[in-house]
Structures are given as C-alpha cells and as structure tokens.
Amino acid sequence: MPADRLLPSLDRLYRALDAIADEEQRTYEEDLLSGRYVITASLDITAASTAQVVSQHKSLQSVENRFRVMKDFLASGRSSTTPKSASSDMSASACSRR
Questions:
Q1: How far is residue 95's CA from residue 46's CA, in Å, rounded to a whole number?
Q2: What band does 98 get if pLDDT is binned at 50, 70 and 90?
Q3: Which residues form the domain of 64?
Q4: What is the pTM of this model?
C-alpha cells in the first residue's frame, strides 16, 4: 500500500483509538461518582472545612424537605377542611418537631 493511502488510514485508526480511550476515561469517572453526590461551594478552602460544607448542605436539605411536606399538605386541600384553630395547632406542632 502506498504511503499516501496509508497515512489517512493510520489517522482514522488513531482517532478511533483516542475516542475509545476518551470513552473509557468517561466511563471510569462516571463509575467513580455512581451513587454519590458531588457538592460544590463557592467558598475559599480556608473559609470552611469539608465537614462544615456537608453539614450545611444536609441542614439545607432538611429545611427544603420540610417546606416540600408543608406545600404538599397545603396543596392537597386538607387545610381548607380543617378548622382554623386546628390548622394553627398543626402548623405549630409541625414547626416544633425538628
């Protein structure tokens, strides 16, 4: 095979091998993160430790979950059938259950 025909074939082969290597690297990185959360913060590394960032994130998740439960309760229409005094008692008990 003449060299001018061999070079494009080698070029395609190298591109294919690079694509396979890139795919293997992506798969490896995805496997490392599979089933895990990645938390990013805009803080400087000296501003907070990893443990502090994770703790704050868990606290935020807890607050968001409580709002979601309250929103679902209000959206279900149960609040319109509950007497006003009972609904205020329920909201007070929901806030104190932390």
A1: 34
A2: very low
A3: 44-98
A4: 0.38
